[in-house]
Amino acid sequence: MATAEFEKTDILKLADQDGQFRRKVSQFRNFISSDPSSPFPAEKDRYVVYINLGCPWAHRVNILLHLKGLTSVIPIIIVDCQLVPNGWSFTGDDYSATADPLYGFKYLRDLYLKADLEYTGRYTVPCLWDKKNETIISNESSEILRMLYSEFDAFVPEDRRESVKPLLPKHLQKEIEEMNEWVYNTVNNGVYKTGFATTQEAYDEHLHVLFASLDRLEKHLEQPGHSPFLFGEHITEADIRLFTTMIRFDAAYVTIFKCNLKMIRYEYPRLHDWLRRVYWDEGEESNCGAFKKTTHFDCAPNAIIPAGPLHNILLP
Ligand SMILES: N[C@@H](CCC(=O)N[C@@H](CS)C(=O)NCC(=O)O)C(=O)O
Predict the structure, then answer these.
(1) Its pTM surpasses 0.80
(2) Does 176 lie in the same domain as 135?
(3) What domain range is 44 assigned to?
(4) Where is the GST C-terminal domain (predicted)?
(5) Which atom of ligand 1 is least distant from the CA of 54?
(6) What is the mean pLDDT of the segment spanning 53-65?
């Protein structure tokens, strides 16, 4: 691969000139379909997903595969959690393989360039790969999540299918999508806008918006019909999307991203109860612990992991 290809993206530069972090729009946006005649039909042994165990966006997909019992249909390939100047790599650390099992690559970037030599975006996880066409289906976690649970039903054990146990029940779709929108902008991405800010103004701007949304989530959980999970009796897509940010909040974002006005465990009792309930569920609702099994407090995108605040969630 020519070196020039590797210089398109400055991997370690996250904020723009004005100190604001602006997330780039994901560029691979194909969809797998349950329709066998579609260009990317749902099949076993055809797709794999690249993730790392520290990333909240990749964690969504990891939870989903465990929740739906799809880990043998769409295998997971793990990269190291440390972002080095060449991007995500295979080192054998953080549960990663020592080389890409499909092509022997050292870096995830090589896979992106295999899909498209002209690609100029960021080399992100999660990344859903089609072994047959040797291309990336999608690198947008929200859409990977949707296609995996809506299009692979035929491969899911009967009692966990969307038709029986929906993650997006029709009657709640509008409410869930409304919540997804503000939670994405101010919480999931809000912690990054705060943590990657390189000016005081940018940090202040996003910090307060983030905490206003946590207050709003606390209120949401007080309302009838919003317990034990965000939208009632069953786990929905909204719980998955909120969980991956909340489980990292006290453990990482408070210190690493300076999201430290309040902590979930002390100032948000309802949110904390919800988080503990989802994390500790090892019963039918979580398919025997999909959330806990996929949470790795020992994998963080920082060579040194702060010892505190203690991971209280680890205590039953
Ligand atoms: N919109 C993407 C964002 C994914 C994303 O930003 N992933 C991070 C890891 S937490 C990443 O791979 N960053 C590497 C980079 O930006 O170079 C999604 O939701 O899938």
Answers:
(1) yes
(2) no
(3) 3-160
(4) 169-302
(5) 10
(6) 97
Report residue 263 as tokens.
Answer: 């902590």
Tally Cβ neighbours within 10 Å of residue 155. Answer: 18
* Close Cβ partners of 7 (under 8 Å, ≥ 6 residues apart): none
Among 16, 124, 192, name the best residue to mutate to test ligand 1's pocket (greatest count of ligand atoms within 8 A of Cβ).
Answer: 124
For 3-27, write each residue's pLDDT tens digit: 434 445 577 788 898 889 998 888 9
Tokens of 120: 């100029």
Binding residues for glutathione, as ranges, are: 88, 122-125, 140-141
Atom 5, ligand 1: residue with shortest CA distance? 124
Q: Each residue of 225-243: pLDDT tens digit?
A: 999 999 999 999 999 999 9
Do both 52 and 106 map to the same domain?
yes
Structure tokens at 73: 């249909």
Do 155 and 175 have their domain in common? no
- C-beta of 122 in contact with ligand 1 (< 6 A): yes
Looking at the 3D structure of the chain, how many domains does it have? 2
Catalytic residue among 47, 55, 253, 299: 55
Q: Is 26 in the pocket of ligand 1 (CB under 6 A)?
A: yes
Pocket test for ligand 1, best of 9, 27, 125, 144 (most atoms within 8 A of CB): 125
Cβ contact 48:160 at 8 Å: no
Residue 119 designated active-site: no
Same-domain status, 156 and 45 = yes
pLDDT confidence tier of residue 314, bands split at 50, 70 and 90: low
Q: What amino acid occupies position 9?
A: T
Domain boundary among 114, 139, 160: 160
Number of other residues whose CB lies within 10 A of the CB of residue 103: 10
C-alpha 236 to ligand 1 mean position (Å): 23
What span, in angstroms and rounded, lies between the C-alpha atoms of 146 and 96?
25
Q: Is residue 165 part of a domain?
A: no
Q: Whose CA is nearest to atom 2 of ligand 1?
A: 140
123 and 232, same domain (yes or no): no
At residue 1, the pLDDT reads 38
